[in-house]
Prior knowledge:
The complex is a heterodimer of chains A (232) and B (81).
Chain A: E1 3-7, H1 14-25, E2 29-33, E3 44-47, H2 67-77, E4 81-85, H3 87-94, E5 101-103, E6 111-119, E7 135-142, E8 146-148, H4 151-159, E9 163-168, E10 187-191, E11 197-200, H5 218-231
Parallel strand pairs in A: 1-2, 1-3, 3-4, 4-11
Antiparallel strand pairs in A: 5-8, 6-7, 6-9, 9-10, 10-11
Helix pairs in contact in A: 1-5
Chain B: E1 2-9, H1 16-27, E2 39-45, H2 52-67, E3 73-80
Antiparallel strand pairs in B: 1-2, 1-3
Amino acid sequence: MKFGVIVFPGSNCDHDAYHVISKQVGQPVDFIWHRETNLNSYDALIIPGGFSYGDYLRAGALARFSPVMESVKKFAATGRFVLGICNGFQILCEAGLLPGALIRNRDLHFICEHIFVRVETSDTPFTNEMERGAVLRLPIAHAEGNYVCDDATLETLQREDRIVVRYCDRDGEITSAANPNGARDNIAGICSRERNVLGLMPHPERACEDLLGSSDGRDIFRSLAATLAAVA
Amino acid sequence: MKAKVYVSLKPGILDPQGKAIQHSVELLGFDGIADVRQGKYFEISLADNAGQEEARESVSRMAREVLSNPIIEDYRVEIEA
């Protein structure tokens, strides 16, 4: 199985993602510069966090027009796996690969802290090694993580079991106090209808070693690796 | 020819920046402010040989596909000769 980490001007979590895939998952991984258009050799892509194009216009808005993104759309359409983390989630929304949008945090602050999320479904390639209801402690670091969508989209996400993780307290209770940024329905991550594209505001790649304060993020990469091993 | 594009958050979309600005101007002593919404404004210079309707059409497309995110924002285009 081969992974690719897409690098835009301004990406800054690309090395973290690369490190986790090569050292924790133990699989081959390449950096993919955003001008590349041939993604044929990859099984899974990570769109990392950071500030692509300086967050000009809107977070993720300009990265959508990078040459690689047309190829990412085709890649996703073949059923292969795409994980967008933080700015990667924002890019996936801007590109129309995931519904909704991520706007300025409710309280305007850039929030950088560890929070808790509850796994709402194990029926995704990224969470199938976890139990529904599992609580993960993961870091967030964003100013635009406030997920918004219209009522019809929310209803669709709920009906199709596509809300993958939600902000919760340490006991797994979904409360407004545990919602760091005002995201609708405490949404921290959603997947596509076909379930092969996941957008996450928290950073699992920064939580794969106990030394970093949490290793809960490993379960997401472990799930993805297990999925890929089963497909191969 | 110049095109002006105004992008604003749709009604109902929370605008925490607008709220913070409202709070600040109220601290300055302005009262009677019901609401402040922050938006974006773009000036686009166009080649003069383009027709007005043609210009409106292409700038509207720009506004729809790039300058605004239709999930959260509305836009308005003005063309100045």
